Amino acid sequence: MATRDAGGSSSNGGSDVTVTGVRPNRLTSWLRDRLAHPLARGLDLDSPEATAVHARLIREKPFLRRLYLQYYREYDAAVRRAAPGGLVLEIGSGAGFYRDLHAGVRSLDLRPGADVDVAGSALALPFRDRTASAILMLNVLHHLPDPRAFFRECSRVLKTGGRVCLIEPYVSPLSRRLTKPLHHEPWDEHGGWSLPSSGPMTGANMALPSIVFVRDRATYDAEFPELPVDRLRPHTIALYLLSGGVSMRSLVPAALFSPLLAVEQWLEASGRSLASMMTIELVRR
Fold first, then answer.
1. Mind listing the pLDDT tens digit for each residue in 115-144?
2. 26-283: which CATH number, 3.30.457.10, 3.40.50.150, 3.40.50.2000, 3.40.30.10?
3. What 3-state DSSP class applies to 226?
4. Are residues 92 and 137 in contact, defined by beta-carbon separation less than 8 angstroms?
5. pTM of the predicted protein model
6. CB neighbours of 205 closer than 8 A, spacing ≥ 6?
7. Other CB atoms within 10 Å distance of the CB of residue 101
8. What gap in Å lies between CA 179 and CA 199, rounded to an integer?
């Protein structure tokens, strides 16, 4: 969930102070500490060790792995809709396993120790113009210090009809009350599009995707007419939180994933007020 070019979650360096300067209350701080996964506790999140731990947790926590597989289906659908014949790029893929499922995918990440095809930045993609069919990212956009530079790179690298699939946190009435207090990453709905320079895993604003594609949608449309939003679908009520992500223990057994997913998909019809994640799909004109 770098230039943070890494899949999965990140941190504000261990501080309880958010970018808005508000401290979580003692209860949420206590809960985060009690629920911290033993392998993730005390990690330097910009270290190769953290990359390896996150990759291990995504693969070995059954509930979290199933959630990733569900998100990878979003990737698959975007690739099917994209113009064929070009590269399929997953950016920030160092801890994920999508490449293990699809041998033709090229992976790129900045994180130290990331097992990827190319070490590089989302803000300066090392690929030729008009060579890519799809660009895929899971929990990466909200770590990029300059999203505009990333969108410009997408416009440059994608073929006509190529697609960008972004799976990111979503600001809703419920996520403000659940995700915001319990997650360790900063959350600033009043911020702009840029983030201060930081390490590949320690810069973040979980509200950034909603700032760009909801609050400032008219600005995005005006600045990037060649890369319009084709789809925006809020989803995932509590599954990610229940999975524990890469920082906490899972709160429920993997056997409950399918029934909980079915309940969430039924509740999605209630509208956007319950969602904590969204999928944004952009298409290159």
1. 899 999 999 999 999 999 999 999 999 999
2. 3.40.50.150
3. coil
4. yes
5. 0.88
6. 19, 142, 185, 186, 187, 188, 191, 195, 211
7. 12
8. 23
